[in-house]
Amino acid sequence: MDAHTLGVLLLGSGALAVVVWVLHKLGKALAGIAEALAAAAVVFLALWWLCKGVFWVVAQIVMHPRTSLTVVAVAAWCYWLGWLSLVVTLTVVASGLASWRWFHLVSYDQWAGRVLRTWWQKWAIYMPKLPEWLHACGLSVKDDAIPVDVTVTLVGRKKVSREQRPAGVRVPKVKRVRSGPSWDEVQVQLVPGQKPEDFDDAARALASARKVSRCQVREIAPNVVSIDFQRRNLLAAPVPCPEIGERAVDLRRVWSGRTEYGQDWHVPLHGSGSHTLVAGASGAGKNSMMWCPLVSIAPAIRDGLVRVTGIDPKGMELAYGRGIFHRYAVTPKDALAVLDDLVAAMDARKAEFAGRVRNVPISAENPLELVEFDEIGALTKYTDRKTREQIVERVALLTTQGRALGFTVRGYVQEPTKDTVPVRELFPRRICLRVTSKSHVGMVLGDQAYERGAWANRIAETEAGVGYVWGEGLREPLRVRAGWVPDDTVKALEAFVTGRIASIGGAAA
């Protein structure tokens, strides 16, 4: 080996040693940097999860303050005083609440029952179970968008390839739960792609999932709905009518029965929304809808502030209290004469007050003319054409012009079709009692009424007077039950109005 070759080898060995040394130093530096980055990542992730955990705890405390404070109080009690004292205290409190509920249910439910029931229903039923019910009823949104690649060859063939990936399901979020004596109101926030009408269509399925007889959906906001579940039927028992006697009468809010929420139900007999159409099958309780408001305004009828006109094609129902009515008709000819008299009185009142007032004040000189038209379909369809057209025309005049002049029409019908009652759209307030067909609900209360919970075709035959009301001031159909008026109360009302007695107590149902 010559000197030149030896020099090259030594030079190459030195260069290789330098490269190895540089790589060694660089590796150590990179390892240090990697360790530093790993440590920083661990610290960052730890801080991230810590901040996220703190944010979640704060959010839970803000969103559910009562539950959070209760958990903290229980934990502190167990830590400082022991679990045995907690058990003893809870036993004493439970016994006190039970005694309170036993002796005074109204005040208990007002101050404690609603809070405890809401808390229990929310965490034991709706938070864990409602998402499952919504998904089962088709009220979830599935993200099943799958990308598709299409390749077209020169010979016209297409090759389609799909990339499979798991699809996510988004369910409306429970925002609020409020539980009353008979209803649970659960507000949920809709997910993108849903609309409130989707929940209307699923009301029956949701009621079955909750194992209740009725479910109603109300729109709270464009992306929030309230799903209301009826746990108890407060209208199962008959509602007693009021006693006949001296009382203050407000013709714009006349007591007529109870609502499904346990509150008094009032109807207007004068002013906005006073014209009313009541539809129901035979035995559904139309008589209660008619007589109960008349019992409530008995002093006004006696004092001449209200004059009641009765049109009774059957000649039976209103005839039992004939003395109550200022005008009375049975035959189509007599009914037309009565309606002509009312239209003439309305025209005279219009001529007297036109340009002076916008609404005629009710007084003994200008009383409220209340028309009770029983079985209105018998005269608007089942009579000769000429008389039928004239009756329909008079009713249309009274319903379109009579509100401000103090004329109110209340009609009752079994078959609510357009052919039977061609002027049904002129009644701003409508009540649907038990009917024989699901389609009748929409005819009376309007489109989508059945989907919103007005299941009038499912009312039992034993629930006479139960129905659904819709009209001015009501966004959703309201379930009500009219006060039941027995025969002796009708006779007592007739005697009170005609002045044969000073006052008499109405029989309770």
How would you summarize the topology of this molecule?
Blueprint: H1 3-63, H2 65-80, H3 83-103, H4 105-136, E1 141-143, E2 148-152, E3 158-162, E4 168-170, E5 173-179, E6 183-189, H5 196-201, H6 203-210, E7 214-221, E8 224-230, E9 239-240, E10 254-259, E11 264-267, E12 276-279, H7 286-296, H8 298-302, E13 306-311, E14 325-329, H9 332-353, E15 368-373, H10 377-380, H11 385-401, E16 407-413, E17 429-432, H12 438-445, E18 466-470, E19 478-484, H13 487-498
Parallel strand pairs: 9-19, 12-16, 12-17, 13-14, 13-15, 15-16
Antiparallel strand pairs: 1-4, 2-3, 5-6, 6-8, 7-8, 10-11, 10-19, 17-18, 18-19
Helix pairs in contact: 1-2, 2-3, 3-4, 9-11
Notable traits:
509 residues, alpha/beta, eleven-stranded mixed beta sheet, four-stranded antiparallel beta sheet
Please give a quick description of this structure:
This protein is an alpha/beta fold. The protein contains 13 helices and 19 strands.
Compute the separation of the termini in Å.
130 Å
Principal-axes geometry comes out as: elongated
- Average predicted local confidence, pLDDT: 85
Q: Structural class of the secondary structure composition?
A: alpha/beta
Q: Kindly state the number of beta strands.
A: 19
Described by strand count, sense and barrel closure, the largest sheet is: 11 strands, mixed
Would you mind describing this structure in some detail?
This protein is α/β, with parallel strands linked by helices and 509 residues long. It is 44% helix and 20% strand. The protein contains 13 helices and 19 strands. The strands form four sheets. Strands 9, 10, 11, 12, 13, 14, 15, 16, 17, 18 and 19 form an eleven-stranded mixed β-sheet that branches. Strands 5-6-8-7 form a four-stranded antiparallel β-sheet. The longest helix is centred in the first third of the chain and has 61 residues, at 3-63. The radius of gyration is 37 Å and the shape is elongated. The model is unreliable at 145-150, 157-166 and 502-509 (pLDDT under 50).
